[in-house]
Amino acid sequence: MAALGQALHYSVSRAGTKLGVEVDSDAKAPNGNSCADVETLCKEIACIRNMRKSNICGDAENNYGDHGSDAGTFFQGNPESQRDQSHDESGRSQSQPRLTVNSVGHDFPRAETSVSTRQQRQADTGKRHAEDALRKSSYITRFNRLLATIVPSGGHSATEGTMVVDVDGWGRIAWVSPFGFYVHIPFCAKRCDYCAFATWTDRDHLIERYVAACRKDLAGADLPVATSVFFGGGTPSIIAGELLMSILGDIARTDDAEVTVECNPDTVTQSLFDTYANAGVNRVSLGVQSMVPHVLKSLGRSHDVDNVKHALACAANAGIDRVNVDVIYGAVGETIDDWRRTVEEVLALTPLPKHVSAYALTVEPGTPLSLDKSRFPDDDDQAEKYEIVDTLLNDVGLPNYEISNWSAPGEECRHNILYWEQGNYRGIGCAAHSHVDGRRWWNLRTPERYIAAVESGATVEAADEVLDAATRKFEMLELAMRMRYGVPESALPVEDLHEFLDVRNGRAILNRRGRLMAGEIATRLRV
Fold this sequence. Notes:
Layout: E1 8-11, E2 20-23, H1 36-53, E3 98-101, E4 107-110, H2 118-150, E5 162-165, E6 173-176, E7 179-185, H3 207-219, E8 226-233, H4 241-248, E9 253-263, H5 270-279, E10 283-289, H6 293-299, H7 306-318, E11 322-329, H8 336-347, E12 355-360, H9 379-395, E13 400-402, E14 405-407, H10 414-420, E15 424-428, E16 433-436, E17 439-443, H11 447-456, E18 461-466, H12 469-482, E19 487-488, E20 501-504, E21 507-510, H13 512-516, H14 518-522
Parallel strand pairs: 7-8, 7-15, 8-9, 9-10, 10-11, 11-12
Antiparallel strand pairs: 1-2, 3-4, 5-6, 12-14, 13-14, 16-17, 17-18, 19-21, 20-21
């Protein structure tokens, strides 16, 4: 996790072995949070586990599976941060269980109890275990959210791995190298005028064979455990929920894996989202584009604005609380007031989306939009609209973390961060792209050819490229520059570009003006 570099160092290993964390309690992450907060929370998690292991909760017969006597995968704190004080780092007073350091450096709890007999302890075991379960769930959630706020990239590093709380253990931290799956669903009811993706409106008769081919493709590969899965398209929500989720069922993933499905609001039903949630989907991305009917028509979109509200309600009812809303600015006929109305209506949705992606309309060759120059977007108009959306989203607590993406802290899209940090991922389906350690490849473009290749046992790979070290480094800088943590100060001529950059802690970060000029600034990057 390079972003924390000097501030936080930790070592992790598999279940049954010790974990360690060394924290410079005076260090600050780039956003100002104390890295010691991670240590504090980890210790709270360890405290609960240790309480059970040492029989304070009356669980004398529990041998914790095959973990053995060293099952308490404890956090071994920096001795200098172990203070003898009236309140420990979490704010608990000494009258409550608190962590001490024994002779071998492990953290064990010390608690006083008035319970004097085994019978009395056993009588309280059920209640205490129930309380433990609630604390466990709370700490897991807090840990992941806290880690996400401390690490500038959203709490997950594509290059070095991520810390994941193992929900089957008590505070055990597993090291899982991030690996994503992108599943391409090429079917659409209507193709938008600006869309250049591999999508078709006349191939629905192939859906069942296509899903079967995706599943066979997955079954034939030795693939890592997924930390994120993204169903994109096309319109994934056009496929019956159980059929689409059969693909997800074939993907091994971590307990906290982010699983996203792109949806057209017109295709959303409560039953569909319930099916998604039951299968493990925890994030949906709604293709809203505009909340103004005449702008939707200009974009060649078909959905009903009222269905956006319906989709948000369905997600909430299904327990899917991570919702992204995609919007596009710059369509011909869209006024500044139209755009402001779209953003304001998105922010008036209930519940408030935790993530918004706002993209400038671009003209792609071969699209209907590219054939009509009178519909081309205006650069100055788009710049003004970018400033509007950036202001409005920041005002409601959704700061920008990538040029076109804003989110509440901890709600960044982990899958997209994987792309932006040159992480490894596998594309499943026609035209899907993959990347592993500098090699990129892409699948056959049409669903027919993809299905035929899978069914015959032939390769689905259409072509590939292997990046040399210099190219990978330049792309790393180019992508990092888009993010809120920026690039090393030495990578840009900061004096020449001072009006477009903020320089903090040795890193050059695009300000709002810089984000508008990102393409031009990228040409000044120095490897």
